[in-house]
Amino acid sequence: MFNLKFSLFILGAQLVAAASCDIYASGGTPCVAAHSTTRALFSAYSGSLYQVKRKSDNGTTNIAPLSAGGVANATAQDSFCAGTTCVITTIFDQTSRSNHLTRAPAGGATPGAGPDSLAPADGAPVKLNGQKAYGVFISPGTGYRNDKTNGIATGDAAEGLYAIFDGTHYNGDCCFDYGNAEVSANDTGPGHMEAIYFGTARANAGAGSGPWVLADLEDGLYTSASSKGTTASNPTITERFVTAIVKGEPRNQWAIRGGNSQSGSLSTFYSGVRPNGYNPMKKEGAIILGIGGDNSDRAEGTFYEGVMTSGYPSDATENSVQANIVAAKYTAA
Ligand SMILES: *[C@@H]1O[C@H](CO)[C@@H](O)[C@H](O)[C@H]1NC(C)=O
Ligand SMILES: *[C@@H]1O[C@H](CO)[C@@H](O)[C@H](O)[C@H]1NC(C)=O
Ligand SMILES: *[C@@H]1O[C@H](CO)[C@@H](O)[C@H](O)[C@H]1NC(C)=O
């Protein structure tokens, strides 16, 4: 097995380090959605990362990386939003599939309500390798979604997900999620979701008092095949930046992994069979951020970047992605 960690490849005349989605592609499990307001997730990506809208005149502008594969141009946001306030209206998909995230509509958990709120564009300042950028600050009532996706896993098909969150921003309500959900914004039953959850919404889910990286599989947040008791191998997260992974494949296999986005490697918190009633899965292929599948929008958290793949990524591929994340040098601003 060759080591992707230090792999470089030639792009045009430049020598560039492989980014997260280049690494997943090399592993045979390509990204089918790639979302980040902080940086490009392909080394060749120089398109828009996200769109902001300002209050003074409802004008919008798209924020791109400083260079292909680089960190977002935060200066562009700061100058566009000077003297007024801005919200993040769109988080663009960096793959060619146009799986963009926009304001989530009302759902089964919020009958009669309007759509969710949009995140303040300057709500989560951060630095990557010393350069300023902004994450997506989700407070209760805020959420993003795409119900008409392209290439996202459905049914029992295999997929992998990772996201980077602020490990210090969470609550115990439902549900700060990123990943695969119902296309109807309604709870359609067990196995209709496969998303990463971060927070303390399920008491005694992992070791200590949380927060934990859990999986929202619909009708339950899981750490293992059991819906009860504590999974001791799933630790309370104490890091400022957490890399969170959930993946699932046919034949009754799924896993939760995680680590410190600033250093070190990933640990496997669970790998094994699914809970009773979740095999086969009934994934629907919508994408949510900051909410549950039925638009339960009472949770909070901060999202910096995340992807969804086609196929079940190997641990080795994810370990290389973690090395790329560490090399991005996330620090608090
Ligand atoms: C911006 O759009 C909103 C919603 O359509 C509207 O209520 C508001 O008056 C607009 N603001 C300006 C400055 O045009
Ligand atoms: C960043 O945005 C500013 C403001 O829009 C712009 O002047 C500058 O050229 C951008 N930087 C790069 C490297 O594109
Ligand atoms: C969601 O469920 C509600 C209540 O059962 C129903 O009225 C609504 O039509 C459903 N929405 C969709 C998009 O299926």
Structural category is mainly beta
The CATH class assignment is Mainly Beta
What is the CATH architecture annotation?
A: Sandwich
Please summarize the sheet with the most strands: 10 strands, antiparallel
Order of helices and strands: EEHEEEHEEEEEEEEEEEEEEEHE
Task: Provide the gyration radius in Å.
Answer: 18 Å
Give the mean pLDDT: 95
Order of adjacent strands in the largest pleated sheet: 5-4-6-7-10-19-12-13-14-15
Number of separate helices: 3
- Uncertain residue ranges: 1-6, 10-14
Which hetero ligands occur in this complex? 2-acetamido-2-deoxy-beta-D-glucopyranose
How large a portion of the residues is in β-strands, by DSSP E? 25-35%
CATH topology: Jelly Rolls
Q: Give the number of domains.
A: 1
Shape: globular
Pfam families: ArabFuran-catal
Signal peptide: 1-18
GO molecular function, one term: alpha-L-arabinofuranosidase activity
Subcellular location: Secreted
Task: Tell me the layout of helices and strands.
Elements: E1 8-11, E2 14-17, H1 20-26, E3 31-36, E4 50-54, E5 60-63, H2 74-80, E6 86-91, E7 101-103, E8 124-128, E9 131-138, E10 144-146, E11 159-166, E12 177-181, E13 194-199, E14 212-216, E15 221-222, E16 241-249, E17 253-260, E18 267-272, E19 286-289, E20 301-309, H3 315-327, E21 330-332
Antiparallel strand pairs: 1-2, 3-20, 4-5, 4-6, 6-7, 7-10, 8-9, 8-21, 9-20, 10-19, 11-16, 11-20, 12-13, 12-19, 13-14, 14-15, 16-17, 17-18
Keywords: Carbohydrate metabolism, Disulfide bond, Glycosidase, Hydrolase, Polysaccharide degradation, Secreted, Signal, Xylan degradation
Enzyme class: hydrolase
GO molecular function: alpha-L-arabinofuranosidase activity
